[in-house]
Specification:
With 196 residues, the chain is mostly helical. 73% of the residues lie in helices and 0% in strands. It has 2 domains: 1-47, Arc Repressor Mutant, subunit A; 49-184, Tetracycline Repressor, domain 2, CATH 1.10.357. It is built from 9 helices and no strands. The longest helix has 26 residues, at 50-75. This is TetR/AcrR family transcriptional regulator.
């Protein structure tokens, strides 16, 4: 018999893959049991309800998101490049075969109106991302109002890329972010303006 930690990881990773690919409501607990190779009794001992399993999946996704953003930022040079690295992270993610958009938005669309706990978990992840972007914007010497603008670009890019299946959406969002940053820092030159 597998230990509790292994069983939990197996169930959460399986549910994550299935929910992301097919939607939470389309995937029954019997399917999770079969795919994970963990008995239904054991699954319900670990996760008393399907909402509990969804919340565990969202915690896993939060960790993956935070790790991905942190990794991209750590590879960037200047503080300005670190802000733009968020969009580089998106560019890599959008190229993955399994990309289906933002898991948090997907789950909120399915369950956010019916589960206060799930809605709160999604809102916290989005707020956490905004706090991280706010930190990066501050470190780059940009005004605070830039952070929510960049977050909207990143969120919109995820949705647009999922619908259009165009990974190039990240590059467009990055170019728009770069324009906003340059404008905020006062080194923006609009069309027809040349430096002298």
């Amino acid at each position: 018999m597998i230990d509790e930690e292994t069983a939990r990881e197996r169930v959460v990773s399986t549910a994550d893959r299935l929910f992301y690919a097919h939607g939470v409501q389309a995937v029954g607990m019997d399917t999770v049991r079969t795919e994970a190779g963990v008995s239904l009794k054991r699954i319900y001992a670990l996760f008393p309800s399907k909402d509990d399993l969804v919340l565990a999946v969202l915690r896993r996704r939060t960790h993956q998101w935070d790790t991905g953003v942190t990794g991209a930022v750590s590879r960037a040079g200047t503080p300005r490049d670190q802000v733009l690295a968020v969009f580089d992270f998106l560019a890599e993610w959008f190229l993955e075969d399994a990309f289906r958009g933002c898991a948090f938005i997907n789950v909120f669309g399915e369950l956010g109106g019916d589960s206060d706990r799930i809605a709160a978990a999604v809102r916290e992840q989005k707020a956490s991302f905004q706090r991280r972007v706010t930190e990066l914007v501050h470190e780059a010497g940009c005004p605070g109002h830039l952070a929510p603008q960049l977050v909207l670009l990143a969120e919109g890019a995820q949705t647009t890329a999922a619908i259009s299946r165009d990974p190039g959406t990240a590059a467009h969002a990055r170019a728009a972010a770069d324009t906003l940053i340059r404008h905020a820092l006062g080194d923006f030159q609009g069309p027809g303006v040349s430096g002298t």
